[in-house]
Design a protein that fits this description.
The protein is mainly alpha-helical. The chain has 2 domains: 113 residues, Serine Threonine Protein Phosphatase 5, Tetratricopeptide repeat (Alpha Horseshoe); 73 residues, Serine Threonine Protein Phosphatase 5, Tetratricopeptide repeat. The chain contains 11 helices and no strands.
Length: 225
């Protein structure tokens, strides 16, 4: 190999480095623009949270308490629609979308529809709830299961009762939904799955109210196996 060839090969990386430097210099304005745009988006996002969304959260919570009172009193129509002075959960959702209050309103609204016998609306509202609270999320799944039971859609009912059991993971709600799950399986003649659900209550939640007479349920389905 000649010295000329060797020098050519050694110089190549230097040439590439130079090209990289040229790229940065030639595109400096574009890179600065992109960096500025990213920073601007971050600033806009935090302004959105503080200036726009923050006050809406407060106002939505202030507006919703009366609907919650109607819900507690089982005045489902007023809980849904409100009255002359205060909005119901429907209006809270429409007027204050993207707030935590509107998200929680979906749970209350679905529960109200369930109690009114409007099962499809209940399912739609409950499925729109996206909350971090374990108890409320578990109840949302469980109430969705109840709505499907009323519609005699036992496959979906079982799916949502299972979700409720897994989400709750506590001695109050899990045995309740396990029992409902067992009853759904019985309705579909799946006695083995029903027995498994009832036995989970007996072994995992022996001190729950549902466990007190669960042996009767176990004996009933095991006799059919």
């Amino acid at each position: 190999m000649s010295k000329t060839q060797a020098n050519t090969k050694v110089a190549a990386p230097e040439s590439n480095f130079g090209q990289s430097g040229n790229f940065v210099r030639e595109n400096q304005k574009s890179l600065l623009f992109i960096s500025g745009a990213v920073i601007a988006l971050i600033v806009i996002y935090f302004l959105y949270l503080k200036v726009y969304l923050g006050p809406r959260e407060v106002k939505a919570a202030d507006q919703m308490y009366r609907a919650q009172d109607f819900w507690a009193q089982k005045d489902w129509d007023k809980a849904i629609k409100g009255d002359a002075s205060y909005p119901g959960f429907e209006k809270i959702i429409n007027d204050y979308s993207n707030t935590k209050a509107a998200n929680l309103a979906y749970f209350y609204l679905g529960s109200a529809y369930l109690n009114k016998g409007e099962y499809h609306k209940a399912i739609e509202s409950l499925n729109n709830y996206r909350g971090d609270d374990t108890m409320v999320a578990a109840e949302a799944f469980g109430s969705t299961g109840d709505a499907y039971v009323e519609l005699k859609d036992y496959s979906n009912a079982a799916t949502y009762f299972n979700k409720a059991v897994d989400k709750a993971k506590n001695k109050f709600l899990s045995p309740l939904y396990l029992k409902k799950l067992g009853l759904v399986y019985e309705e579909t003649k799946d006695n083995k799955s029903a027995s498994d659900a009832y036995k989970r209550i007996k072994t995992e939640y022996p001190e729950s109210a549902e466990a007190q007479n669960i042996d009767e349920y176990i004996a009933r389905v095991d006799a059919k196996l």
